[in-house]
Structure formats: C-alpha cells, structure tokens
User: What shape does this take?
Amino acid sequence: MKLVHSAVALSVLSLALLPTGASAQVPAEPTFADDIAPIFYDSCVTCHRPGEIAPMSLISYQDARPWARSIKNKVETRAMPPWHLDREIGVQAFLNDPSLSDDQIATITKWVDNGAPQGNPANTPTPPEFAPADAWQIGEPDLVVQFPAYTVPAAGPDIFGDLYTDFGLTEDRYITAIQTKPVGDKARQVVHHALSYAVEEDESGDRMGGGTFLVEYASGKQAEVYPAGSGLKLPADSEARLSYHLHSIGEPTDAVVELGIKFLPVGTEPEHIRYSKQLGGSHGNTIGVLDLPAGEISRSDGYARFNKAARITMFQPHMHMLGTYQCIEFIYPTQPVQAETVNCASFDYNWHMNYNYTDQETPLIPAGTILHVSSWLDNSAANRANKDPKNWVGAGQRTIDEMAFAWIGWYDLEDDEYEAAVAERQEARERTENDN
Ligand code: HEC
Assistant: This one.
C-alpha cells in the first residue's frame, strides 16, 4: 500500500544519507595554529569569545591552552558544542546541526594528548568577525515593537514573567523572518531567555490563552527565517507577549527587549502557512496532567492528530527542570498500523535547543497521522537539576511546576502535494542508491 511505502521510504532515506566516515583526516601532530583554531573558529567562538555567554574565550592560544583537558572531555562526550539530539535514532539531517565530525573530535583529542602545542603562531587564521551584537540579523525589519522595560535588581533569584505590548496591526500579515533583540550590552546580559507570542482577544476583550508562538530568544539563537514560500500569520489587532527569564548581574539593569519582523507585502499570502504549536502534552492539552511522585522517574505520553498531510520542519522538546529526554513518534493511518520514531533528544532546561530539518529530510506525513510525544521526567535526587527531590510535582506554568510537550513546526500539504513530495523523495533516494 502506498502510505505504508512512504513511511518506510522516510526511514530508509535517512539511513542512506548518513555520513560514511571514510575520509580519516586526522593530522599526526595537530597544532593550535594549523588544526585547532580553524575548528574553534567554526564551532565554538560564537559563544566562546569576550562578552558572550560561555565562561571563557577560545580565540587565542593563550586563552584556550589552560582549558585543554576540559575541552577534550567536553568534545569527546559531545557536550560541546551543545546539541542534544540522540544520534542513534531517526532523522539526522538538520539545518542547524553544530556538531563536530568524528575526525574533528579525534584531532582535538590528539592535540590535547600531545600536550596541546601551539605550532607556528603565524599560521593561525584570522578569527571570524561577528556582526555587532545589536545588529538585526534579518536585515532592516518592517516592524519593530519594544516591550516595556523591566528593571532587574542587582541581586536576587531568577525572574520569570510576561510583558505585553501592541503590534499595532490593522490587518493580518505574514511573517517571513523574526528576531528578538535585547537592547544594549547590559540588557543582553540579564536576558537569559525569552519567548514571544501573538495573543488575540475574544469578543469581551480578554486575552485568549498564551497565544501563538512566534520566536525564541536564547543566547546564540536570536533570529528565525522561515523556509522560502512559507510564512507565519500575525493576526490583526493581536498583542505581543514576551515570556521572559531574567537574571541579576550585580547592578540594577533595565531589561529592554525588541522584536523585529519582516513581512510579505500587504495583502499577500504565502504558498504555505507555517505553524508552530505546542503538541503532545498529556491528556491532549498543553499543560495537561502530570503526576510525578518524589524520587521517581516518570513518563508522560501525549498525542495530536494531523488532519491534513504535512511537512514537518522543526522539533523542539519542552519540559522544565525535571525533564531529561523526549521522543517524537508518528503513527501512520495505515492498516496494519505502522509507527516510526522520528527523533529523540536529551533535555536540559538551561539549553532550549530546536532542531530544524533539512529540506531533503523534513518528515512527510499523510493526513490522519498521529504524533506521539513521550517525555521522561526525573523527580529523583539523581537528577542534578532537581532542587527538591522530596516533593511531588505536577503540571503548571511556574518553573517549579512541570510541562511535557513538543514544539512542532510544520506546514500543511494537500494530498496531491504530499504524494508529489513523497515521489520526489523516492526518486532522490533511488539516485543516491545508484550513485553508490
Ligand atoms: C551555543 C554556545 C556554545 C558553543 C557553540 C560552544 N560552547 Fe562551550 N560552553 C558554553 C556555555 C554557556 C558553557 C558553560 C555552561 C555549560 O557548560 O553548559 C560552556 C562550557 C564549555 C566548557 C566547560 C568550561 C568549564 O567551566 O569547565 C568547555 C571546555 C567548552 N564549553 C568547550 C567548547 C568547545 C571546544 C566548543 C566548540 C567545539 C564549544 N564549547 C562550543 C557555550 C557554548
């Protein structure tokens, strides 16, 4: 049957494209100047440079040398650069995968084992230039909205909450690119993390829930540009909500955050409307019901049905402090039922990682597919993020409550578009097989 076939095609294709690891390019005597600096400049210094989030700079030999042992450990365990996707399961082709190759890891390991030599300083490449921290990465926005300032005290616990402002739109528009930007160096330091939403009002003027998710801000990740031909709807008269996580930096600081947005021209609709929703919470809704006894690891399962065929563009696990691991599975509308685990990822609340599929490997699902999200939450003392292993925890909005759902980015396909996309993928797969 056709649908069964398409599900199988998906998994086989992802295997066919896995790197073969055939080209061993590990220098015999790696040096910082010739071999290590190029890796750090590509994969580390976006965060490991002065004024950024990481604890030390890795730009110069003098900066990096004292960290050699720790660097070996972090790259061998793949803790750095941060990427928490389970590499043993499912699709592995992502637009934003920062992982080092096995050869790069072997090069760093050998360098450290050889005493981390500098080599000839003259061979060190020029460090990359970074756009000023407050540049718009998306180009000049069509609309900039600023949230009211929140004054973060000099010291105190982390602060969580919401700020609102108006978008001031009188008609629906479609977003093609969006960026969150704390204004100024100081604001950048206090804003740990922020999510933006578009909130609509009901007839009586009350806010309708938490709104539609727009974009996430976390250091290292600020801008989002949607795939060509797709756009996210920003409804007329909606309000912007900023859900923030701020922390103190030793002096009172105004956290001022702006959203910059680029739109399709007025009156234009995109070919595909891109959705991003919180799916697969337990009992079918976002927050759901969680029952997490003290000292135990629990699993939460949630489901969502896709009534139309779809191209899945993004997966992002969402839990709070107790979350440790999440998988997404598709249950296809076939007889007999076929299911496929598409991805699993470890979870760490300090890192909000999202996984954007490459165009060639975006999962394609037929109408009627069910998404199954399984989330593991560890309320035992073994979980180092667990501040209170003696207490029961349930579902809720506060950071000390839990959540367990996945953000899924997708756009709908008509059945014939779906069939065409599956056929195209099948052909690509046959071409790859013939080349091998
Ligand atoms: C997205 C930002 C980011 C990238 C990219 C990144 N790091 Fe980090 N790194 C951090 C942050 C933040 C910390 C401290 C918190 C933590 O460990 O999670 C850290 C911690 C470390 C540590 C531990 C420091 C200590 O205190 O012992 C090492 C070593 C390290 N990184 C090496 C690297 C290397 C090598 C690369 C590139 C191959 C890299 N990192 C890429 C953000 C990053």
